Amino acid sequence: MNEKFTGIVLFIRPHREKDSLVKIFTREFGTKMFFVRGLQSPNHPLKKHLIPLTEHRYWGTINQQGLSFLKEGQTHNLFRSIQSDPFKQAHAAYLSQLVDASIDDNSEDQQLFDIFEAALCSLNEREDARPIQLLLQLKLLRRFGLRLNMNSCVVCGSSQKIEDFSMTHLGVLCHNHLDTDPNRMRLSYKQIKILQLFNEIKLNQLGHVSISDQSYKRIDELIFMIYHEQVGIKLKGESYLNQLYKVADQLKVSKIEGT
């Protein structure tokens, strides 16, 4: 059945000699896999409408089972800043993988689509992509059945003197109960406050934030650990992000030593 719909391209996979499989998160039908004949040809009419991490309006055949098919496309948002910035692109790619993992194929989820679309718009406009990633990572944990207890001690329920996070209990610990988890994360007071804030606010409430590189690294370690150990997923985009920032850190050191 031919339908009109809006979609964000998640990824393209070569298929046979010149054909491709394209996964698109559609607002109307959820994530769908499309077969596009001859897409690897340089002059294919749909090529400009099938760039990963861009948003378009499409007309095509939607099948409930198996592959769907595209006929026409109209560009809606190319997210040019994301496309031209390797760091933003890496963050957006990771988040696209995380969103894809959080939803069953062929399941309509307009709320998640709108969240992802808003995240890409914010990534495109902001200078630093890391706050957007952190906020979305925390929000999407709930779709995997996890809710972090960030407001009160998981042992006694007190909201006073919160000083650390426990992976064992998936929540914060107050001063009096730090010894209940010898392997607690040993986060700083500021890092706890960042997690508490980002766990509560919505994307449209996120203003300017100033977080040190050290705090981002420590919080990243925690969030990725939760996804690895509690959710059971480790995405390819995570490794690429880590490599990208590692190279950036090495370049900073080299520049300082060279001055």
Explain this structure to me?
By secondary structure, this protein is an alpha+beta fold. It folds into two domains: 2-78, Beta Barrel (OB fold (Dihydrolipoamide Acetyltransferase, E2P)), CATH 2.40.50; 86-258, de novo design (two linked rop proteins), CATH 1.20.1440.120. The chain contains seven helices and seven strands. The chain has helices at 80-84, 86-101, 110-125, 130-141, 189-200, 213-231, 236-258; strands spanning 2-15, 19-26, 30-36, 55-61, 68-77, 162-166, 171-174. Strand 6 (162-166) and strand 7 form a beta hairpin. Helix 2 (86-101) runs antiparallel to helix 7 (236-258). The longest helix has 23 residues, at 236-258.
At CATH level 3, the topology of the largest domain is de novo design (two linked rop proteins)
SS strand fraction:
15-25%
3D shape: globular
Helix content bin? 25-40%
Helices and strands, in order, run as EEEEEHHHHEEHHH
| Strand line-up of the largest beta sheet | 1-2-3-5-4
The first-to-last residue Cα distance is 64 Å
CATH H-level name of the largest domain... which superfamily? Recombination protein O, C-terminal domain
SSE class: alpha+beta
Looking at the overall shape, the CATH architecture of the largest domain is Up-down Bundle
Instruction: Report the mean per-residue pLDDT as an integer.
Output: 94
Keyphrases for this structure?
alpha+beta, 7 strands, OB fold (Dihydrolipoamide Acetyltransferase, E2P), 40% helix, 259 residues
